[in-house]
């Protein structure tokens, strides 16, 4: 879950985009994770930009757990999405889509 502006948003799902949907200083990253959360009828999406570089043990577990299900990729098993967030992160926020 995520606390934002006094509300607790529950995690619904996560998915990826490649390349990233968002840019920072006009740089588009190879991948972006979206952690989709909901509080009543409100959605909150945490986007995590991914750059190429060192191996990430948790990302490797995600790739290894993919299965093809009705032409869609799906992760089986459990994962704590907090492992995707860098320890020294910066963030931007905006309302709307």
Question: How would you characterize the overall build of this protein?
Answer:
This protein is mostly beta strands and 97 residues long. It contains one helix and eight strands; from the N terminus they run E-E-E-E-E-E-H-E-E. The chain has one helix spanning 57-64; strands at residues 2-4, 7-17, 23-24, 27-28, 31-39, 42-50, 66-69, 72-75. The strands form three sheets. It has a four-stranded antiparallel sheet with strand order 1-2-5-6, with no helix packed on it. Strands 3-4 form a two-stranded antiparallel ribbon. A two-stranded antiparallel sheet has the order 7-8.
Please give the alpha-carbon distance between the first and last residues.
21 Å
Radius of gyration: 14 Å
Order of strands across the widest beta sheet?
A: 1-2-5-6
Q: How do the SSEs run, as a string of H and E?
A: EEEEEEHEE
Give the mean pLDDT: 82
Oligomer: single chain
Strand content: over 45%
Poorly predicted runs: none
Structural class assignment: mainly beta
The count of strands amounts to: 8
Shape descriptor: globular
Most strands sheet: 4 strands, antiparallel
Count of helical stretches: 1
* Helix content estimate: under 10%
Features:
97 residues, single chain, two-stranded antiparallel ribbon, mainly beta, four-stranded antiparallel beta sheet, 1 helix, globular
Briefly summarize what is shown.
The chain has 97 residues and is mostly beta strands. The protein has one helix at residues 57-64; strands at 2-4, 7-17, 23-24, 27-28, 31-39, 42-50, 66-69, 72-75. Helix content is 8%, strand content 45%.
